[in-house]
Amino acid sequence: MLSYLSKLINKIRLWIKDNPREAFLIFIILLIGASFRLYRIGEYMIFLGDEGRDAIVVRRLLVNFDPILIGPGTSIGNMYLGPLYYYMIAPALLLANFSPVGPSVLVTLFGIATIFLVWMMGREWFGNTAGMIASFFYSIAPVVITFSKSSWNPNIMPFFALISIYSIWRVWQYKEFKWLFALGVFFAIILQSHYLGLLLAPTLGLFWVLTYLKNRKSSSEIKNFTKYSILGIGTFAILMSPLVIFDARHEWRNFGAIKLFFLERQTTVSARPWSGISKIPELIDQVNLSLLSSQNADISWIYTYLFYPGFIVLFLFILLKSTRKISPDKKSWLNIFKKLDSKYVASYFLLVAWLGVSFVGLSLYKQHIYDHYYGFFFPAPFLLAGAVSQYVVKNSSRLVKITLAVFLIYAVYINLSNSPIKYSPNRQMQRAVGVAREIQKQANGEKFNLAVLAERNYEDGYQYFLEKWGEPVYDIDPLKLEETLASQLFVVCEMPKEKCDPTHSPKAEVANFGWSKIEEEWEVNGVTVYKLIHAQ
């Protein structure tokens, strides 16, 4: 890998020298993407309970040297991810002097690198125009920007999903089997950022098998292929081992939850692959609406019913065109299938497989699909749009080219007009700091408990700063009441005040405190803070 990176850097230098205009354009695109993502990132980044939880865990790793064997829990299914994301953001948190902005900047750098990869792969697969259009739209897409600005485990998945696809491409097309080792690393990171990354496995597995079939007659190639496959699988196993060790120590609860979620829990995932086919057109439109169209239905409709069918037609057209070169006496399904290995067809085939498996997999999911669930194929729709645009530019009439240009300009306008930086920042981290400072002041150095009443938040965003400042904040453990129960409980209510009733809340952090009464209350940064003491 290091030798490849060295060669790649030298190639890039020579390429910049030979292609100054294109180099300037991609530099501008990267600059635009970086500006949208890094602008006032400390004020725009999400910092709620999940982000606070991650910061607490990583800080304890750095300060107390507490080893981490398990990562964040999933929102449904009672499953846990692996800890790789925590280890990845630890250096960023340390370099930022334990400011949560550090990990967010790291995630943003992955987002900027993804823009570059989209350009590089679009250019290599389809041509210069495809790479530029795909990377530019990826750099300005509001949903992509939003998920590139905050430290959250699913937010790194687009980068590692794309580079995994690129790895199998290098293995399949160029016999660079060393990329299988890298693929083992990348896929482990994907699975430890979100379990929906499993939907990438069929695509990677398919092209792994195709690589084997392509090289099986060469003993030397198969030897290298096998060696690096074993190395990649071994590396993957090592990186997943902390989660396995944790599971073994806890009666395989995580494995049982995963099995229940994917194989037995029919209210969540359908076990019949054909059952979701009717949902695919709607799902494609939903993806286009979120990623490419910034919630503009008119633009989304054009992508769904023109760009996507157009790409399938292009794929079939170039496949049929390439099979015409096969002499009639040698035409067979096997020989036609071999044409999929040719570089002319391969890029279309790989993108069709990536998108097809993704949509079929998501169609089997019966619950609401959130935007971050698309992380394992975030870049794919942009590459598809770039590929169709490339073909139109090279092969269509002037009128069609002008129509495409007008559409793309309008799409740029829609994306820019809905850019996240147009709106006031949420300042969630600043709110957490302000509230934590008030609690620190009112606690007066004495032991206390903490609770948050909110619809979509919990204590860890505030608790992180209190722990960082060395305040004696304790989580109440019913089995260790004498050690963990304090004489005062601070309740942060993020709901409208008329809905705040801290003394009667059924939330565990409040209920475990016991009978209580309000001693004081304050308004801080738009939330109400209550100080509760035990009722006599």
Number of domains: 2
Unreliable segments of 5+ consecutive residues: none
Mean of all residue-level pLDDT scores? 90
| Overall number of strands | 5
- H/E topology pattern: HHHHHHHHHHHHHHHHHHHHEHEHEHEE
Largest sheet: 5 strands, mixed
Fraction of residues in helix: 55-70%
Shape: globular
Please describe what this structure looks like.
- The chain has 536 residues and is mostly helical.
- The chain has two domains: 2-422, no CATH class; 428-534.
- It is built from 23 helices and five strands.
- α2 (20-38) packs antiparallel against α6 (101-125), α2 packs parallel to α7 (128-140) and α4 packs parallel to α21.
- The longest helix has 31 residues, at 219-249.
- The chain is globular, with a radius of gyration of 26 Å.
- 39% of the residues are buried.
Task: Provide keyphrases for this structure.
single chain, 536 residues, mainly alpha, 2 domains, five-stranded mixed sheet, 5 strands, 6% strand, globular, cell membrane, glycosyltransferase
